[in-house]
Amino acid sequence: MQKFNVLYLSAFFFLISLLSFFNIIYSYYFNLYLNVNSYLPSLVLSLILGIFLFFLKKKDIKQTLYNKILIVISGYILLPFIIALPYYFSIYNISLIDSYFESISGFTSTGFTIFENIKQLDESLIIWRSTSQWVGGLYFLFSIILLIDIFDNNLKKSLTNFLSFNSIEVTKQVFKIFVLYVALTLFIFLILKFINFRDFDALNFSLTIISSGGFKPVNEIDYILNNDLKTIIFSLTLLISFFSIFLTYNLIFLKNRYLNFFTEDFYLLIYLLIVIFIFFVLSGKNFPDLLLSITTSISNIGIFFSEFDYSFSFIFLIFVIIGGSFFSTSSGIRLFKIYTLIKFSINELVSHTKPRQVLISKVIFDKKKVDYNVINKYFLSIIVFILSLSTISILLTVSGIDFTSSIKIGILTLMNTLNSSIYGTDNFDFNSINNITKSIFIIFMIIGRVEFITLIILFKKYLFKN
Protein backbone atom coordinates (compact mmCIF):
# COMPACT_ATOMS: atom_id res chain seq x y z
CA MET A 1 0.00 0.00 0.00
CA GLN A 2 2.88 2.40 0.54
CA LYS A 3 3.57 2.40 -3.19
CA PHE A 4 -0.02 3.41 -3.92
CA ASN A 5 0.04 6.16 -1.31
CA VAL A 6 3.04 7.88 -2.92
CA LEU A 7 1.60 7.43 -6.41
CA TYR A 8 -1.61 8.96 -5.06
CA LEU A 9 0.16 12.28 -4.41
CA SER A 10 2.16 11.96 -7.62
CA ALA A 11 -1.04 11.70 -9.67
CA PHE A 12 -2.37 14.97 -8.28
CA PHE A 13 0.88 16.79 -9.00
CA PHE A 14 0.60 15.56 -12.59
CA LEU A 15 -3.04 16.67 -12.71
CA ILE A 16 -2.16 20.19 -11.53
CA SER A 17 0.61 20.32 -14.10
CA LEU A 18 -1.86 19.31 -16.82
CA LEU A 19 -4.38 21.95 -15.71
CA SER A 20 -1.60 24.57 -15.73
CA PHE A 21 -0.86 23.61 -19.32
CA PHE A 22 -4.55 23.91 -20.25
CA ASN A 23 -4.66 27.40 -18.73
CA ILE A 24 -1.64 28.44 -20.80
CA ILE A 25 -3.33 27.12 -23.97
CA TYR A 26 -6.57 28.88 -22.99
CA SER A 27 -4.71 32.16 -22.45
CA TYR A 28 -3.01 32.00 -25.85
CA TYR A 29 -6.18 30.94 -27.65
CA PHE A 30 -8.20 33.89 -26.30
CA ASN A 31 -5.28 36.35 -26.39
CA LEU A 32 -5.08 36.65 -22.58
CA TYR A 33 -1.37 37.38 -22.36
CA LEU A 34 -1.26 39.35 -19.09
CA ASN A 35 -0.95 36.31 -16.79
CA VAL A 36 0.10 33.57 -19.19
CA ASN A 37 3.61 33.26 -17.71
CA SER A 38 2.26 32.94 -14.16
CA TYR A 39 1.24 29.33 -14.82
CA LEU A 40 4.74 28.21 -15.85
CA PRO A 41 6.10 27.86 -12.26
CA SER A 42 3.08 25.76 -11.31
CA LEU A 43 3.44 23.62 -14.43
CA VAL A 44 7.17 23.01 -14.01
CA LEU A 45 7.26 22.50 -10.23
CA SER A 46 4.24 20.18 -10.13
CA LEU A 47 5.67 18.17 -13.04
CA ILE A 48 9.05 17.80 -11.30
CA LEU A 49 7.45 16.74 -8.01
CA GLY A 50 5.12 14.33 -9.81
CA ILE A 51 8.03 12.67 -11.64
CA PHE A 52 10.13 12.53 -8.46
CA LEU A 53 7.37 10.79 -6.48
CA PHE A 54 6.54 8.48 -9.37
CA PHE A 55 10.09 7.17 -9.67
CA LEU A 56 10.84 7.29 -5.95
CA LYS A 57 11.96 3.89 -4.69
CA LYS A 58 9.06 2.51 -2.70
CA LYS A 59 8.64 -0.54 -0.53
CA ASP A 60 5.49 -2.50 -1.29
CA ILE A 61 4.51 -3.08 2.34
CA LYS A 62 1.34 -2.43 4.28
CA GLN A 63 1.41 1.12 5.57
CA THR A 64 0.01 2.14 8.94
CA LEU A 65 -3.17 4.16 9.25
CA TYR A 66 -1.24 7.02 10.86
CA ASN A 67 1.00 7.36 7.81
CA LYS A 68 -2.02 7.37 5.51
CA ILE A 69 -3.56 10.22 7.51
CA LEU A 70 -0.31 12.17 7.38
CA ILE A 71 -0.10 11.66 3.61
CA VAL A 72 -3.64 13.01 3.15
CA ILE A 73 -2.93 16.03 5.37
CA SER A 74 0.40 16.67 3.62
CA GLY A 75 -1.50 16.79 0.34
CA TYR A 76 -3.76 19.50 1.74
CA ILE A 77 -0.64 21.50 2.59
CA LEU A 78 1.62 20.89 -0.44
CA LEU A 79 -0.82 20.82 -3.35
CA PRO A 80 -2.35 24.24 -2.53
CA PHE A 81 1.17 25.69 -2.48
CA ILE A 82 1.55 24.73 -6.15
CA ILE A 83 -1.94 26.08 -6.88
CA ALA A 84 -1.00 29.39 -5.18
CA LEU A 85 1.87 30.14 -7.60
CA PRO A 86 -0.26 31.58 -10.46
CA TYR A 87 -1.86 34.00 -7.98
CA TYR A 88 1.52 35.05 -6.62
CA PHE A 89 3.16 35.54 -10.04
CA SER A 90 0.13 37.26 -11.59
CA ILE A 91 0.01 40.99 -12.39
CA TYR A 92 -2.25 41.67 -9.39
CA ASN A 93 0.53 41.94 -6.78
CA ILE A 94 -0.96 39.31 -4.48
CA SER A 95 1.14 38.48 -1.42
CA LEU A 96 2.27 34.92 -0.73
CA ILE A 97 -0.05 34.51 2.28
CA ASP A 98 -3.02 35.83 0.27
CA SER A 99 -2.16 33.53 -2.63
CA TYR A 100 -1.96 30.54 -0.30
CA PHE A 101 -5.21 31.57 1.42
CA GLU A 102 -7.02 31.69 -1.93
CA SER A 103 -5.61 28.33 -3.02
CA ILE A 104 -6.46 26.64 0.30
CA SER A 105 -9.97 28.07 0.09
CA GLY A 106 -10.31 26.62 -3.38
CA PHE A 107 -8.69 23.24 -2.71
CA THR A 108 -10.82 22.66 0.41
CA SER A 109 -13.92 23.75 -1.57
CA THR A 110 -14.66 26.52 0.92
CA GLY A 111 -15.04 29.58 -1.29
CA PHE A 112 -13.62 32.34 0.91
CA THR A 113 -11.84 34.87 -1.29
CA ILE A 114 -9.55 37.87 -1.00
CA PHE A 115 -10.79 39.29 -4.32
CA GLU A 116 -13.34 42.08 -3.96
CA ASN A 117 -14.22 42.36 -7.65
CA ILE A 118 -14.10 39.18 -9.75
CA LYS A 119 -14.74 41.15 -12.95
CA GLN A 120 -11.28 42.69 -12.67
CA LEU A 121 -9.59 39.28 -12.88
CA ASP A 122 -8.22 37.67 -15.99
CA GLU A 123 -10.58 34.95 -17.29
CA SER A 124 -7.84 32.34 -17.14
CA LEU A 125 -7.28 33.09 -13.44
CA ILE A 126 -11.02 32.73 -12.77
CA ILE A 127 -10.91 29.30 -14.41
CA TRP A 128 -7.82 28.49 -12.30
CA ARG A 129 -9.81 29.27 -9.15
CA SER A 130 -12.61 26.95 -10.25
CA THR A 131 -10.28 24.13 -11.27
CA SER A 132 -8.57 24.34 -7.86
CA GLN A 133 -11.94 23.45 -6.32
CA TRP A 134 -12.51 20.67 -8.85
CA VAL A 135 -9.12 19.11 -8.03
CA GLY A 136 -9.77 19.54 -4.30
CA GLY A 137 -13.12 17.75 -4.52
CA LEU A 138 -11.53 14.85 -6.36
CA TYR A 139 -8.71 14.73 -3.80
CA PHE A 140 -11.26 14.57 -0.97
CA LEU A 141 -13.07 11.60 -2.55
CA PHE A 142 -9.79 9.77 -3.15
CA SER A 143 -8.81 10.46 0.46
CA ILE A 144 -11.93 8.64 1.65
CA ILE A 145 -10.78 5.55 -0.23
CA LEU A 146 -7.27 5.85 1.21
CA LEU A 147 -8.65 6.15 4.76
CA ILE A 148 -11.51 3.66 4.32
CA ASP A 149 -10.31 1.51 7.25
CA ILE A 150 -11.20 4.33 9.65
CA PHE A 151 -14.90 4.07 8.97
CA ASP A 152 -17.52 1.53 9.96
CA ASN A 153 -18.38 -1.55 7.89
CA ASN A 154 -21.73 -0.18 6.67
CA LEU A 155 -19.97 2.68 4.90
CA LYS A 156 -17.44 0.28 3.42
CA LYS A 157 -20.23 -2.01 2.26
CA SER A 158 -21.87 0.87 0.43
CA LEU A 159 -18.75 1.00 -1.73
CA THR A 160 -17.64 -2.60 -2.23
CA ASN A 161 -17.87 -6.20 -1.07
CA PHE A 162 -14.33 -5.97 0.31
CA LEU A 163 -14.01 -4.69 3.89
CA SER A 164 -10.24 -4.39 3.63
CA PHE A 165 -8.97 -2.85 0.42
CA ASN A 166 -5.96 -4.25 -1.39
CA SER A 167 -4.14 -2.28 -4.06
CA ILE A 168 -6.21 -3.73 -6.89
CA GLU A 169 -9.51 -2.90 -5.20
CA VAL A 170 -8.33 0.62 -4.33
CA THR A 171 -7.29 1.24 -7.95
CA LYS A 172 -10.66 -0.04 -9.18
CA GLN A 173 -12.65 2.24 -6.87
CA VAL A 174 -10.41 5.25 -7.58
CA PHE A 175 -10.91 4.81 -11.33
CA LYS A 176 -14.66 4.51 -10.81
CA ILE A 177 -14.71 7.74 -8.79
CA PHE A 178 -12.68 9.59 -11.42
CA VAL A 179 -14.99 8.54 -14.26
CA LEU A 180 -18.11 9.42 -12.27
CA TYR A 181 -16.65 12.74 -11.18
CA VAL A 182 -15.78 13.78 -14.74
CA ALA A 183 -19.12 12.53 -16.11
CA LEU A 184 -21.14 14.41 -13.49
CA THR A 185 -19.12 17.56 -14.14
CA LEU A 186 -19.96 17.32 -17.84
CA PHE A 187 -23.61 16.63 -16.98
CA ILE A 188 -23.83 19.78 -14.84
CA PHE A 189 -22.19 21.80 -17.62
CA LEU A 190 -24.79 20.60 -20.14
CA ILE A 191 -27.66 21.34 -17.76
CA LEU A 192 -26.40 24.88 -17.19
CA LYS A 193 -26.00 25.35 -20.94
CA PHE A 194 -29.60 24.16 -21.35
CA ILE A 195 -30.81 27.04 -19.17
CA ASN A 196 -28.77 29.52 -21.23
CA PHE A 197 -25.65 30.00 -19.11
CA ARG A 198 -22.85 31.31 -21.28
CA ASP A 199 -20.04 28.80 -21.85
CA PHE A 200 -17.59 30.49 -19.50
CA ASP A 201 -20.08 30.67 -16.60
CA ALA A 202 -21.35 27.13 -17.20
CA LEU A 203 -17.79 25.76 -17.13
CA ASN A 204 -16.84 27.54 -13.92
CA PHE A 205 -20.08 26.73 -12.11
CA SER A 206 -19.91 23.05 -13.14
CA LEU A 207 -16.40 22.79 -11.65
CA THR A 208 -17.62 24.53 -8.51
CA ILE A 209 -20.89 22.64 -8.01
CA ILE A 210 -19.47 19.12 -8.38
CA SER A 211 -16.85 19.92 -5.72
CA SER A 212 -19.28 21.65 -3.31
CA GLY A 213 -17.20 24.77 -3.75
CA GLY A 214 -18.16 28.41 -3.48
CA PHE A 215 -16.03 30.26 -6.02
CA LYS A 216 -18.13 32.20 -8.54
CA PRO A 217 -17.08 33.55 -11.95
CA VAL A 218 -19.16 36.67 -11.23
CA ASN A 219 -19.57 38.96 -8.23
CA GLU A 220 -23.27 38.17 -7.85
CA ILE A 221 -25.45 35.51 -9.47
CA ASP A 222 -28.58 37.65 -9.39
CA TYR A 223 -28.39 38.69 -13.03
CA ILE A 224 -27.60 35.10 -14.16
CA LEU A 225 -30.50 33.48 -12.28
CA ASN A 226 -32.92 36.06 -13.62
CA ASN A 227 -36.04 33.88 -13.74
CA ASP A 228 -37.69 31.17 -11.65
CA LEU A 229 -36.95 28.30 -14.05
CA LYS A 230 -33.22 29.02 -14.03
CA THR A 231 -33.20 29.27 -10.24
CA ILE A 232 -35.03 25.95 -9.78
CA ILE A 233 -32.86 24.00 -12.23
CA PHE A 234 -29.67 25.55 -10.84
CA SER A 235 -30.81 24.62 -7.32
CA LEU A 236 -31.40 21.02 -8.36
CA THR A 237 -27.88 20.75 -9.79
CA LEU A 238 -26.53 21.61 -6.33
CA LEU A 239 -28.02 18.34 -5.07
CA ILE A 240 -25.55 16.36 -7.17
CA SER A 241 -22.85 17.12 -4.60
CA PHE A 242 -25.35 16.46 -1.77
CA PHE A 243 -26.08 12.82 -2.57
CA SER A 244 -23.45 10.09 -2.85
CA ILE A 245 -21.30 10.27 -5.96
CA PHE A 246 -22.06 6.55 -6.38
CA LEU A 247 -25.85 7.07 -6.45
CA THR A 248 -26.10 7.38 -10.23
CA TYR A 249 -23.73 4.47 -10.78
CA ASN A 250 -25.61 2.22 -8.36
CA LEU A 251 -28.99 3.09 -9.88
CA ILE A 252 -27.77 2.11 -13.35
CA PHE A 253 -25.40 -0.79 -12.65
CA LEU A 254 -26.73 -2.26 -9.38
CA LYS A 255 -26.36 -6.05 -9.43
CA ASN A 256 -25.90 -7.19 -5.82
CA ARG A 257 -29.08 -5.88 -4.24
CA TYR A 258 -28.21 -7.16 -0.80
CA LEU A 259 -25.57 -4.46 -0.42
CA ASN A 260 -26.57 -1.32 1.46
CA PHE A 261 -26.07 0.98 -1.49
CA PHE A 262 -28.95 3.35 -0.86
CA THR A 263 -29.34 3.54 2.92
CA GLU A 264 -27.86 6.99 3.41
CA ASP A 265 -29.39 8.38 0.21
CA PHE A 266 -32.87 7.36 1.40
CA TYR A 267 -32.33 9.34 4.58
CA LEU A 268 -31.05 12.35 2.66
CA LEU A 269 -34.03 12.31 0.29
CA ILE A 270 -36.56 12.11 3.12
CA TYR A 271 -34.70 14.83 5.01
CA LEU A 272 -34.68 17.09 1.92
CA LEU A 273 -38.40 16.62 1.22
CA ILE A 274 -39.38 17.28 4.84
CA VAL A 275 -37.27 20.44 5.01
CA ILE A 276 -38.67 21.79 1.73
CA PHE A 277 -42.26 21.04 2.81
CA ILE A 278 -41.90 22.66 6.24
CA PHE A 279 -40.26 25.80 4.87
CA PHE A 280 -42.74 26.10 2.01
CA VAL A 281 -45.69 25.90 4.41
CA LEU A 282 -44.32 28.03 7.25
CA SER A 283 -41.98 30.57 5.66
CA GLY A 284 -44.17 31.95 2.90
CA LYS A 285 -41.07 32.53 0.76
CA ASN A 286 -40.92 32.45 -3.02
CA PHE A 287 -40.41 28.73 -3.87
CA PRO A 288 -37.43 29.11 -6.27
CA ASP A 289 -35.54 31.29 -3.78
CA LEU A 290 -36.51 28.93 -0.96
CA LEU A 291 -35.28 25.91 -2.90
CA LEU A 292 -31.96 27.60 -3.66
CA SER A 293 -31.46 28.60 -0.03
CA ILE A 294 -32.07 25.01 1.14
CA THR A 295 -30.03 23.19 -1.51
CA THR A 296 -27.07 25.57 -1.27
CA SER A 297 -26.94 25.03 2.52
CA ILE A 298 -27.37 21.26 2.71
CA SER A 299 -24.79 20.78 -0.07
CA ASN A 300 -22.28 23.07 1.73
CA ILE A 301 -21.89 25.29 -1.34
CA GLY A 302 -23.31 28.55 0.03
CA ILE A 303 -23.87 30.39 -3.27
CA PHE A 304 -26.87 32.68 -2.99
CA PHE A 305 -28.29 36.01 -4.10
CA SER A 306 -26.90 39.32 -2.88
CA GLU A 307 -29.87 39.98 -0.57
CA PHE A 308 -31.71 37.73 1.87
CA ASP A 309 -33.84 37.93 4.99
CA TYR A 310 -31.43 37.12 7.84
CA SER A 311 -34.21 35.82 10.12
CA PHE A 312 -33.61 32.23 8.97
CA SER A 313 -29.81 32.39 8.90
CA PHE A 314 -29.45 30.29 12.07
CA ILE A 315 -31.59 27.48 10.62
CA PHE A 316 -29.59 27.44 7.41
CA LEU A 317 -26.38 27.28 9.45
CA ILE A 318 -27.82 24.15 11.09
CA PHE A 319 -28.34 22.68 7.61
CA VAL A 320 -24.70 23.49 6.83
CA ILE A 321 -23.54 21.66 9.96
CA ILE A 322 -25.58 18.57 9.06
CA GLY A 323 -24.18 18.47 5.51
CA GLY A 324 -24.67 15.83 2.84
CA SER A 325 -23.75 12.25 2.01
CA PHE A 326 -20.60 10.58 3.27
CA PHE A 327 -19.44 9.68 -0.26
CA SER A 328 -20.05 13.15 -1.64
CA THR A 329 -17.87 16.25 -1.87
CA SER A 330 -20.00 18.06 0.72
CA SER A 331 -18.83 18.56 4.28
CA GLY A 332 -20.85 18.45 7.50
CA ILE A 333 -21.23 16.06 10.39
CA ARG A 334 -23.50 13.86 8.20
CA LEU A 335 -27.19 13.14 8.67
CA PHE A 336 -26.62 9.40 9.06
CA LYS A 337 -24.34 9.97 12.05
CA ILE A 338 -26.81 12.30 13.75
CA TYR A 339 -29.77 9.97 13.18
CA THR A 340 -27.83 6.94 14.44
CA LEU A 341 -26.76 8.78 17.60
CA ILE A 342 -30.32 10.00 18.28
CA LYS A 343 -31.73 6.49 17.86
CA PHE A 344 -29.02 5.03 20.09
CA SER A 345 -29.64 7.69 22.77
CA ILE A 346 -33.40 7.03 22.75
CA ASN A 347 -32.77 3.29 23.05
CA GLU A 348 -30.49 3.89 26.03
CA LEU A 349 -33.09 6.03 27.78
CA VAL A 350 -35.87 3.53 27.12
CA SER A 351 -33.69 0.66 28.36
CA HIS A 352 -33.46 2.35 31.77
CA THR A 353 -37.19 2.97 32.04
CA LYS A 354 -38.22 -0.39 30.56
CA PRO A 355 -35.30 -2.78 31.22
CA ARG A 356 -37.25 -5.87 30.06
CA GLN A 357 -38.04 -4.43 26.65
CA VAL A 358 -35.95 -5.80 23.80
CA LEU A 359 -34.43 -2.97 21.74
CA ILE A 360 -32.99 -3.51 18.30
CA SER A 361 -30.11 -1.23 17.37
CA LYS A 362 -30.95 -1.01 13.68
CA VAL A 363 -31.78 1.95 11.48
CA ILE A 364 -34.45 2.07 8.80
CA PHE A 365 -33.44 0.77 5.34
CA ASP A 366 -30.50 -1.10 6.87
CA LYS A 367 -30.46 -4.77 7.92
CA LYS A 368 -27.30 -4.57 9.99
CA LYS A 369 -27.07 -3.65 13.64
CA VAL A 370 -25.05 -0.64 14.70
CA ASP A 371 -22.33 -1.68 17.14
CA TYR A 372 -20.90 0.36 20.00
CA ASN A 373 -17.59 1.03 18.23
CA VAL A 374 -19.47 2.89 15.49
CA ILE A 375 -21.43 4.89 18.07
CA ASN A 376 -18.19 5.84 19.81
CA LYS A 377 -16.68 7.06 16.52
CA TYR A 378 -19.74 9.14 15.70
CA PHE A 379 -19.90 10.60 19.19
CA LEU A 380 -16.19 11.49 19.21
CA SER A 381 -16.41 13.17 15.80
CA ILE A 382 -19.14 15.48 17.10
CA ILE A 383 -17.10 16.24 20.21
CA VAL A 384 -14.10 17.15 18.05
CA PHE A 385 -16.32 19.41 15.92
CA ILE A 386 -17.57 21.23 19.03
CA LEU A 387 -14.01 21.65 20.31
CA SER A 388 -12.82 22.86 16.89
CA LEU A 389 -15.68 25.36 16.64
CA SER A 390 -15.01 26.63 20.15
CA THR A 391 -11.32 27.03 19.38
CA ILE A 392 -11.71 28.91 16.09
CA SER A 393 -14.45 31.13 17.55
CA ILE A 394 -12.23 32.11 20.48
CA LEU A 395 -9.23 32.75 18.22
CA LEU A 396 -11.27 34.89 15.82
CA THR A 397 -12.80 36.85 18.70
CA VAL A 398 -9.35 37.51 20.16
CA SER A 399 -8.18 38.69 16.73
CA GLY A 400 -10.81 41.42 16.74
CA ILE A 401 -13.85 39.86 15.04
CA ASP A 402 -17.14 40.24 16.90
CA PHE A 403 -18.39 37.13 18.72
CA THR A 404 -21.49 36.51 16.58
CA SER A 405 -19.53 36.74 13.33
CA SER A 406 -16.79 34.54 14.82
CA ILE A 407 -19.28 31.73 15.45
CA LYS A 408 -20.92 32.05 12.03
CA ILE A 409 -17.64 32.26 10.12
CA GLY A 410 -16.22 29.48 12.32
CA ILE A 411 -19.07 27.16 11.32
CA LEU A 412 -18.67 28.01 7.64
CA THR A 413 -14.90 27.47 7.86
CA LEU A 414 -15.16 24.03 9.46
CA MET A 415 -17.98 23.05 7.08
CA ASN A 416 -16.07 24.47 4.06
CA THR A 417 -19.01 26.63 2.98
CA LEU A 418 -19.01 30.01 1.26
CA ASN A 419 -19.94 33.06 3.35
CA SER A 420 -22.99 34.68 1.74
CA SER A 421 -26.11 36.71 2.44
CA ILE A 422 -28.06 33.63 3.47
CA TYR A 423 -25.95 33.39 6.64
CA GLY A 424 -25.59 37.13 7.18
CA THR A 425 -21.84 36.96 6.51
CA ASP A 426 -21.62 38.31 2.95
CA ASN A 427 -20.01 41.57 4.12
CA PHE A 428 -17.07 39.82 5.79
CA ASP A 429 -13.87 41.06 4.12
CA PHE A 430 -11.11 38.43 4.04
CA ASN A 431 -8.76 40.81 2.25
CA SER A 432 -8.62 43.28 5.14
CA ILE A 433 -7.89 40.82 7.97
CA ASN A 434 -4.29 40.44 9.17
CA ASN A 435 -2.00 37.56 8.23
CA ILE A 436 -2.35 35.84 11.62
CA THR A 437 -6.12 35.68 11.22
CA LYS A 438 -5.70 34.40 7.66
CA SER A 439 -3.39 31.70 8.99
CA ILE A 440 -6.10 30.69 11.48
CA PHE A 441 -8.59 30.32 8.62
CA ILE A 442 -6.08 28.31 6.58
CA ILE A 443 -5.51 25.83 9.42
CA PHE A 444 -9.19 25.35 10.18
CA MET A 445 -10.23 25.07 6.52
CA ILE A 446 -7.88 22.07 6.34
CA ILE A 447 -9.21 20.70 9.63
CA GLY A 448 -12.74 21.00 8.28
CA ARG A 449 -11.89 19.04 5.14
CA VAL A 450 -10.16 16.21 6.97
CA GLU A 451 -12.69 13.90 8.63
CA PHE A 452 -12.81 14.71 12.34
CA ILE A 453 -12.19 11.08 13.24
CA THR A 454 -8.71 11.32 11.69
CA LEU A 455 -7.81 14.07 14.17
CA ILE A 456 -8.87 11.81 17.02
CA ILE A 457 -6.62 9.04 15.72
CA LEU A 458 -3.65 11.41 15.42
CA PHE A 459 -4.23 12.76 18.94
CA LYS A 460 -4.33 9.21 20.25
CA LYS A 461 -1.10 8.38 18.43
CA TYR A 462 1.01 11.39 19.45
CA LEU A 463 -0.55 12.62 22.68
CA PHE A 464 -1.46 9.31 24.33
CA LYS A 465 1.35 7.00 23.28
CA ASN A 466 1.02 4.86 26.35
Explained architecture:
The protein is mainly alpha-helical and 466 residues long. It has a domain at 335-463. It is 63% helix and 0% strand. It has helices at residues 2-29, 40-55, 65-88, 96-107, 123-146, 153-157, 167-194, 199-210, 228-237, 247-253, 263-282, 287-298, 313-322, 335-353, 372-398, 403-414, 435-449, 452-463. Helix 1 runs parallel beside helix 3.
Summary?
This protein is mainly alpha-helical and 466 residues long.
Supply the number of helical segments.
Answer: 18
Compute the number of strand runs.
Answer: 0
Largest sheet: none
User: In percent, how helical is the residue content?
Assistant: 55-70%
What is the gyration radius calculated from CA atoms? 22 Å
Mean pLDDT score, rounded? Answer: 85
Beta-strand percentage range:
under 5%
| String of helices and strands | HHHHHHHHHHHHHHHHHH
Considering the chains and any ligands shown, give keywords for the structure:
466 residues, 0% strand, single chain, mainly alpha
Layout of SSEs?
Blueprint: H1 2-29, H2 40-55, H3 65-88, H4 96-107, H5 123-146, H6 153-157, H7 167-194, H8 199-210, H9 228-237, H10 247-253, H11 263-282, H12 287-298, H13 313-322, H14 335-353, H15 372-398, H16 403-414, H17 435-449, H18 452-463
Helix pairs in contact: 1-2, 1-3, 1-5, 2-3, 3-4, 3-5, 4-5, 4-17, 5-7, 5-8, 7-8, 9-12, 11-12, 12-13, 15-16, 15-17, 15-18
